[in-house]
Amino acid sequence: MKFRILIVDDDKEILETLQSRLDREGYEVVTALDGEEALLKVKQDDPDIIILDLLLPKLNGFEVLKEIRQKYEDKWRPVIIISAQAELDSLRKGYALEADHYLTKPVTMEKVLQGVETLASLIPLRIHKE
Fold first, then answer.
1. Is 62 exposed, middle or buried (0-12, 13-18, 19+ CB in 10 A)?
2. What is the enclosing helix (H) or strand (E) of 80?
3. pLDDT digits over 83-130, tens only?
4. Per the structure, how many domains does the chain have?
5. What is the CATH number of the domain that holds 27?
């Protein structure tokens, strides 16, 4: 099964790096540069996994995550937060809003891939459970 991943980051270099690598790993990738575009892409492209930065224009990552969890309860969409915000309060808030994984920048591509692969492996289990 080929999973669709939405990457949300306002840093174009990070976005392109993640997109390129995930493409090579066989994932279908869509991108967004701000919080409003992210919510539009969730609605239009129905991603299986979301990689989400917190410091975004228009709507921050916490607002995006909250809206995803409220509006799209019909499908489990794992969310990986990747952020420079490494404070305990940010981690707690991310997990309280039901993030599935939280990585702090700078982050290695191996850690990102490990998180994506782990969550992707759980999707079929959640589908059968629902």
1. buried
2. strand 79-83
3. 998 899 999 999 999 999 999 999 999 999 999 999 999 988 876 554
4. 1
5. 3.40.50.2300
Tokens coding 7: 């990457």
What is d(CA 49, CA 10) in angstroms, rounded to the nearest whole number?
Answer: 18
Strand partners, 52: 8, 81
Q: Residue 19: what residue type?
A: Q
> What is the average pLDDT value for the chain, to the nearest integer?
94
H helix runs in 1-130, sequence order: 12-24, 35-45, 61-71, 88-96, 109-129
Q: CB of 47 within 8 A of CB of 41?
A: yes
Range of the domain at 73: 4-129
Percent of the chain scoring above 90 in pLDDT: 87
CA distance 33 to 9: 5
